[in-house]
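Hello Y.,

Per our agreement to keep a running log of every chain we model this quarter, I'm adding this entry. I've kept the format consistent with earlier entries: sequence first, then predicted structure.
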Amino acid sequence: MYKEWITHKSCGCGGIMTIHMHTLFYHAKTKIKHVPVYTCSICSRYETLPVIKDNLAALIGRLDASFAGQNISFAKHNEWANVLKEAFAACPVNTELDHAEEVIRSAVQGRIDLLLDMYRLAREMGDAAWMEETEERLAQLTIYPAHR
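Predicted structure for the entry above:
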C-alpha cells in the first residue's frame, strides 16, 4: 500500500511543500511550462517532482539555440506533467489537499488504464513502435502506484 502523498511533502525547514505547475526559464529565453514542482510556503524553496527529473533533464538536453524565445509545454513530453496539468484544471483553485490528492490518483489510474488499452490495441495490430511508445509512457506513471 502506498503511504506517501503526491500533493505535498515535508520541507527541510519544517514547513510543508505543496505541488503546483511551474514555468522554468532555460537560458532566460525559453519557457518550459507545466513543470510539476513542490514549493514551501515558509522558506520558498522549490524542487521538481522527483519522478520527472530525468525526463526534464533529457528535454533540456535537447534544447538548442533554435528554441530561444519559444514556449514549451513539459506536459507534452511527460505523462506525469500531463496528468497533473489535467487534474489541476479539474480542481478549483482553493481545493483541499485531500480532495486534490483523490483527483490526481484517480486521473493517474485512468491514464494507466487508457495506456494499457492502447498497448493491447497496438499489440493486436502488431505495431511495435506504438507498443514501445506506450510502454515508455506507462513507465513514467508506474513509478508511483495510483492507490494508497
